[in-house]
Amino acid sequence: MTAAASQVLDRVLVLEMVRVTEAAAIAASTLVGRGDEKAADAAAVEAMREALNSLYMDGTVVIGEGERDEAPMLFIGEKVGSAIGKGPKIDIALDPLEGTTICATAGPNSLAVLAIAEEGGLLNAPDVYMDKIAVGPGYPEGIIDLDKTPTENIMAVAAAKGVPARDLIVCVLDRPRHEALIAELRKVGCGIMLIGDGDVAGVIATSDPETTVDVYMGSGGAPEGVLACAALRCVGGQFKGRLLFRNDDERGRAAKWGITDLDKQYDLSELAKGDCIFAATGVTDGSLLAGVKRKKGKMTTESVVMRASSGTVRWVKGEHRTA
Q1: pTM of the full structure
Q2: Cα dihedral angle (76, 78, 82, 87), rounded to 10 degrees?
Q3: How far apart are CA 227 and CA 205, in angstroms?
Q4: What tens digit of pLDDT does each residue of 253-263 get?
């Protein structure tokens, strides 16, 4: 079901979100392949913050770079915008540089990512891990479930698609914690696309037939899960997520942000509610977007911006003059 259009979001132009992610991507691109993750991330953060503060809104960062004592800019709870206290109230989820390691090593699929919704529309997820599974549009509701085994989920998706399991491609983060998952998927016979970083792009890939990715599985950051859900709300698909806690400190962090049911399996619409806008700009070349390119006297960028209420997806190629 398409989300109802938000009059609040109507006041924050869709293309303004692209300008924000473009600014972050351009800033980070100056450090591609330089081996300095922190410097690249800091450049993207500073540029995104400056761009957000130029917009007429009363924005609150609900997914950011960490808590106030951990991040100098764009921390969870930070207020941004030029109309704090009087403009439209907006929830913001952001990752100024999705894939810091990718950027530092000039790998594929590094992005600047942003999602916005009306106040209360995005889950204020703590910075912990989340178990995730996602598929693109066109499947019966409830086709995936984290209470099922990976094998059961794969067989259900294969049956719904009308193909054998060996014809499916599953995207998984290449991490030691996924060894058992990868072994089980290989036993089922499906193909596996291992990615080094950037699971927002991995989840979104399930919605684009050009990527050949059918399913995303595995654990990654909870904030990235919310960002990916904002995108899937716009283009269709299903997502299930469950927070994973390694210690009491992480459980306490969840309680601080109002999460009381620590074992809850979240649905797509619980992580990103109502109307929302998702924007991303490529920092490095990837399956979703081309990266920033520098030519004599100009730079080019490639972005995507999506809106849930209209189901609109716009691909934006920008040309920026340089001094």
Answers
A1: 0.89
A2: 80
A3: 13
A4: 888 878 889 99
